[in-house]
């Protein structure tokens, strides 16, 4: 009889243990939910800050435009993801870094010193979280804050097409121009609107054709074609006209599809236009703008003074003559994200944008 009562008491003691266990499990689940939501909020805040900062630099060097673009991107993000709205205060959370500023990380360590032609935008974004478990502890909500800084500055080192143009050439953005070939036989300065070729030679490689076509460029060829403002470069003359014409437009009849304009017409860029195109469209040619220093022909040397970008419409002949020219339109250009940003470089005419924090 006593044994039966003992067993009955033991059986009844399980219910309180189960109840306590369930409460602990539910609490742990709610806590895990809170932690997960905080993690999602942090990711969301970082994504919004990154996109807003990168959008803001597109408006530089005008700080008002940059701020408006950053805030507009935050609003657009909140429309797309309304369940995780980000808060960005226009006055306190968007920072303009003018030329000469020092950009530091969260610990105060200097990340970058901006030069005279670089500037940046910083954005702080907050995302609030409603807790599931924390109200038991008197906490109804929390938030995660993340920041980002993007910089726009000169693309100080550029892999250029081995074509030079005269520093006196007037870009006239969007206007059709004919760039005329000059073999540098004249002693006087090169005339505005003329072009020629630069010596980026790499032994053992078809460097000239690779760079003109902009296709399957070997690493060593690319490295030899990286130039900077104030570099001294040499002329490359005596090039057979057919060699560069075939690399650009393939007017020789050997239609292998690798010429620059062939690729632009037949591949993923076929539907793109001058008004709407990607940075890697084969029509786009990034070239050094130069000042002739000395010599003529193969002995000529130049100083790179800036860079220019033109949209190659075609290759043709000068009216009444046999020399070829480039039919082009100069464009204002933002290079691809892998462009080399140098915040201390002089004004190159080409600017890169980077997310640095």
Task: Explain what this protein looks like in three dimensions.
The longest helix has 44 residues, at 14-57. The protein has helices at 2-12, 14-57, 63-80, 207-213, 219-224, 241-248, 260-266, and strands at 86-87, 94-97, 102-104, 110-113, 119-130, 141-154, 157-159, 163-166, 176-181, 194-197, 226-228, 232-234, 284-294, 301-317, 324-330, 351-355. It has two domains: 13-152, no CATH class; 157-339, no CATH class. The chain is an alpha+beta fold. Strands 8-10-9-15-14-13 form a six-stranded mixed barrel. Strands 1, 2, 5, 6 and 16 form a five-stranded antiparallel sheet that branches.
Instruction: Provide the gyration radius in Å.
Output: 31 Å
Shape: elongated
What's the tally of helices? 7
The count of β-strands is 16
Question: Mean pLDDT, nearest integer?
Answer: 83
Query: pLDDT under 50 segments (min length 5)?
Result: 20-26
């Amino acid at each position: 009889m006593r044994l039966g009562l003992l067993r009955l008491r033991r059986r009844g003691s399980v219910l309180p243990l189960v109840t306590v266990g369930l409460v602990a499990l539910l609490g742990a689940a709610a806590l895990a939910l809170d932690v997960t939501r905080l993690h999602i909020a942090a990711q969301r805040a970082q994504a919004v800050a990154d996109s807003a900062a990168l959008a803001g630099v597109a408006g530089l060097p005008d700080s008002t435009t940059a701020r408006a673009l950053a805030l507009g991107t935050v609003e657009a993000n909140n429309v797309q993801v309304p369940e995780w709205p980000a808060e960005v205060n226009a006055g306190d959370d968007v920072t303009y870094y003018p030329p000469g500023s020092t950009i530091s990380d969260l610990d105060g360590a200097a990340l970058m010193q901006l030069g005279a032609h670089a500037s940046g935008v910083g954005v702080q974004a907050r995302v609030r979280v409603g807790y599931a478990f924390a109200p038991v502890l008197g906490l109804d909500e929390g938030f995660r804050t993340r920041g980002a800084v993007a910089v726009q500055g000169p693309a100080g080192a550029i892999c250029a097409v081995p074509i030079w143009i005269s520093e006196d050439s007037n870009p006239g953005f969007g206007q059709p121009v004919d760039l005329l070939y000059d073999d540098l036989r004249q002693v006087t300065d090169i005339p505005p609107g003329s072009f020629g070729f630069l010596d980026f030679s790499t032994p053992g490689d078809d460097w000239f054709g690779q760079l003109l076509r902009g296709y399957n460029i070997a690493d060593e060829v690319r490295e030899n074609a990286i130039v900077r403002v104030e570099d001294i470069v040499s002329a490359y003359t005596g090039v057979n006209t057919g060699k560069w014409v075939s690399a650009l437009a393939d007017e020789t009849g050997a239609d292998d599809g690798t010429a620059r304009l062939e690729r632009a017409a037949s591949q993923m860029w076929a539907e793109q236009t001058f008004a709407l195109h990607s940075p890697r469209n084969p029509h786009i040619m990034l070239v050094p703008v130069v000042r002739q220093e000395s010599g003529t022909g193969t002995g000529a040397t130049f100083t790179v003074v800036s860079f220019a970008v033109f949209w190659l419409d075609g290759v043709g002949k000068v009216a009444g003559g046999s020399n070829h020219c480039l039919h082009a339109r100069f464009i204002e250009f933002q290079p691809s994200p892998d462009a080399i940003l140098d915040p201390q470089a002089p004004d190159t005419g080409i600017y890169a944008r980077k997310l640095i924090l």
